[in-house]
Fold these 2 entries.
Entry 1:
Amino acid sequence: VSATISQQALRELVTEWIRQGKCVAGPRQVKPGCVLYAPLESSAQLALAGFIRPANSVKEFIFPKHEELYRYRITGNGIELTEVQQPAGEQVLIAARPCDAASMPILDHVFNWDYKDELYNLRRQLTTVITLTCTAHDDACFCTSVGLGPAAERGSDAMLLELGDGEYEVRCLTEKGKALLEGKLRASERVASVSAGPGKRFDAEQVRAFVKEHFDSPFWPAQTLACLGCGACAYTCPTCHCFDIVDEGNIESGVRARDWDSCQFSMFTLHASGHNPRPNQPSRQRQRIDHKFHVYPEKFGEILCTGCGNCTRNCPVGMGVLGVVAALGSSTPESVK
Amino acid sequence: MSESPEFEPKIVAFVCNWCTYMGADLAGTTRLDYPPNVRIIRLPCTGRIDFNLIIKAFEIGADSVLVSGCHPGDCHYTSGNYHARRRWILFRELLQTLGFDLERIGFTWISAAEGHKWQQTVKEITEKTRKLGPYKDLYQISGSGAPPLPLPIWGGESNTVPLPGWGGEGVGALRETCRRLLAEGSVKVVIGYGRRGPVFVTRPEDVEQLVWDNHCLANLTVYLKRKEIRALGRPAIVVKGCDERALVVLEKESQIDRKEVHVIGMACRGMGEAKCETCDVHVPRFADEVIGDADKHPAEAGERWKSLEVLLALPPAGRMAYWAREFERCVKCYACRQVCPMCYCERCLVEKNRPTEIEPSATAKGNFAWHILRAFHLASRCVGCDECTRACPAGIDLRLLNLSLAKAAEEHFAYRAGMDPKAEPLIGAYSLQDKENFIR
């Protein structure tokens, strides 16, 4: 026995959640050829088909691109600090891709490791993730290479699986998911078939072994020449989570905030002395692969990548994780020693 | 609308130390009466007024801004005011496209002897601003007259399907040429297109990596300035007609030595992008060798600005609402900057943080500041390759800002960046004839 919901009923639910004051976000066509996860003002804006996946990721709903930490005011000899209002509203991420949902439990490690990040955890608690499984993939998708797949349940509170004819099979996976969907579903005998997803494109273990052993390999300069050093890969990645702390204000008062940062920027590791331990783009690309496939797995036991392929799709010069790793596969160990 | 009795306009005046400031001083010593609504900021020269200052004044609550300097021929530094004038002509167009209310920005020439003109100017701008009311539309998403979104501005659909007329012609000749160049040793690396993206071919036997099809979108000239590529030795570069214009500008700005670059021009039938619809440089003009031919008829000059029409038809608040919506999606990944052949600064202004010039955050303020900076630093330099727009992961039509400045350059100065190697660059030069009907 399974449970199903029609697309129309789903949209009605979205309308209801918006009416209740929840922040409902999902894939939305912001202009022809560009679908992004964005807050939905109405259920009609929810895009459910006709694209591979949004060009951004859901991380901005639990880890915003700009987040105020506190405000300050200089008063005579002292400084007055004011707390910012903590996130309080419930969020629903609807029709997230499994490769987005999976990023959250992966990110939980780093945001709760030596320091428990209050704001991140609060947002995480307030968020319910309803994924929509994938029925199509493109050349940039590689979820199956990092242990996930078109219907991977990791990080999802509930999962929608397309049955065709405007019906979805619904699997409630957590209490949160149940709370939102229970009573809204029809009992049914229908069970969705799951697509196989992209074929395995590389062996993550081999990548880990390679980057571990080839820190100073000529592979990096040779294969990363095209990288222009923008942050399109990191900023659209569901798992990249680096941030910078900035103070913005005037001579009297201001705000301390955290902003996304990217290891691909030349300023990322620049020391005050002027020394830069990662002085060029090859060393920054190496860092990105190294962190995702070697450092994070050794520290937290998980690959810091969900295979969504955003880094490749959004890369102006067609690189991304897949571009680099594919080059690795085609290089014989001899030629990259 | 907001002529409430309490409203006192806040006006920021950026004035030149040598003339207008003295003029204001004279007004004071002459005991001339004028409204106290103007806050004066003294600068050494109008040529020194950074356009960001005007924006910042609005951000911190100015209702109007006044910029005032020396009369033509009167500059303490000979030509600072002429340079300023040329910049304002362009900058006003950008502000207009962005939806700033130009009624709130005044430009005047006031000499040290013109205390009365200062008095008059301040009176007028104060009264005008009082009538306009407080400036509330800045960076507002839902300003009065906000457009139904999204605006149908974008012309090109992403081209994942092969375009008609692309049969792979030229790729054989391209590979042969590159094989020859590499074999004879006259170039050490070919910067070209591969299947996934740009490739750097250093050995004759690797020329099979090169492709030529309708996915050859990137403007490869961006690589000529990069250290890692320069280290490879004398390059040959594959360019389309539009990319080639960047070479002209780079050479003009002393960034490349044209003799040290072997240019392989590819005749192009259009890549299906918005820019291609109005392209008039299908065949590269200055390349060392050109492969293939293209008989596409150039579009009419007026067609180039067509995609701006929808936007410019909106009222200022509507334009601002449009951009506020667009920039809201900006994550500041700086892909627009990194792909731009003209953004070759070693350290971008936005990376200067002691003190911070441009707020680094991806907020309305920080994003507007960044996009104004990017667009205006490219004024009369942008060659319209649209790489910024293609690279933007948030789908922001940055090309519209570039277009508005290109339009201004062409209409006011009959100048198109990268078209004529003999033409003097627009910014950095001036003419006594530059028109100034907006300066009082």
Entry 2:
Amino acid sequence: VTVVVVGGSLAGVTAADAVRRGGYDGPVTVIGAEPAYARPPLSKGVLTGSESLESVRLPALPSDVTVRAGVAAGLDLTTSRVTLADGEQLPYETLVIATGSRARTIADPGRENVLRTLDDATALRVKVDSARSVLVVGGGFLGMEVASSARALAKSVTVVDIRTPLLTTMGPFLAELFTEAARDHGVHVVIAPGGVRPVFDGDRVAGVDTAEAGRLEADVVVTAVGDEPAVDWLGPSGLPLRGGVVVDEHCRAAENVYAIGDVAVFPTPWGLRRMPHWDTAIGQARAAADALLRGASATPYRPEPYFWTEAFGLAAKLAGHLPVAGRPTVLRGSLADRSVLLHWPDSQRPAAASINVKFPVPKLRKLATAVPA
Amino acid sequence: MRIEVDRERCDGFGFCAEAAPELIRLDDEGEPEILADAVPAELAGKAEAAARACPVAALRVVAL
């Protein structure tokens, strides 16, 4: 009669805690590959060295939750057992899958620098520190934050992507704003619609070839081309996998099996989506815990997307379904000052962004709430 | 116990107030305002959850 949570990062620890505080008094075990820490600072303060490693650790779970180091290697739904990499079998009554995701790569894994884990960040920190130039492959949130941190360390920085950085994540208006800020900060932004091909020095990626800008090389090359769900251990389990573990609105993947956080593919109003964000990890963890405790009367997870990023002097919080289309209304401040509150008052897909202005997040979320016609 | 906010670290993400509305409220600028000097024993778990929800680890729950 045990709740087993596989994955000890934000989603996993939040679920374990919510199950316990929700009144479940049976055993709760969290299996984590590494101690729980916050990833958002990794590409910022940890990379620049302004943050200590201790400062990113998440507070410990209550003592009546068992936390064990381990990696899951297999799942048997018929016998309700998780097999760990060391061969141990763990029976569960209810299973919560929160194994997250790992960095996508452009070559075979292990040949390039990525930034996903605390170990990645500390290793990259050392390399960037002694480098003169940094090439970032991929201009999403992570890539732009890495580029910004490298610039803060006075490195010569190039970002290459197949389209304008942040275009697919934020939409054209904000993508342009951030890309302009990157250029203002001295970043060389290369747009290579034909894509990139890795260039090797020995077995390490030392640069990329592009059709548009030729060969790009740097002392340190960082790949930031997104993440992919950690589902390899679930391959033969029979769970519905479609770019992640497919769940329902209670984060249920099968009877007594839930999946939450970066690994979960959730039914949103915009279709089945993986939503690898802090806000989603917490919301889905609470929804799964609620479903586990209250069954049919539980509250389903309703995504109200909320993200943030900080790069090139722009600290932005965004609420609403991204990417955002069209031009926003300025509610406060000014774009010229790069200190502004923006609103896209679309009745179907509203969004709001605060950039370098202090504005309460609940109000930002409210601006991004669709008004039923 | 009580909740401490590191104002230098805090970026007003608001997750703490969502996790523990009985203990933390956001002010007009979105900054967390601690509502009780001492956390009542029955809300200790919520205080810890609020600290865990902070993406920049700006909250600490410390013994009085």
